[in-house]
Amino acid sequence: MTRTTADIFNNTYPVGRQLLSQGADQFKPFSTERLFDMAEAGQYLRCEPRTIGKFIASGKLSASWVGRRWLVSESNLRAFVQGQQKDQPVSK
What share of the chain is helix, strand, coil (3-state, %, to 5)? Predict the structure, then answer.
């Protein structure tokens, strides 16, 4: 039998009861943060999707492989933009 998040947090399994006793009743198992595919991330950063792929491959941009595509969280895109801005020299 496959255990689902709902099973665990519905107090069905001992692990769920333990988590609930430790205050996990306020735990949200799913993130509400927006996720971008490579095309959307490219629009966000104003570059081509293949450039996003290069950033992911080089480790400059964190992403998750979900199904058959890369997904990038909005917080990772913001961190990437902030990191890029720090690397750029200040023009005089």
Answer: 50, 10, 35
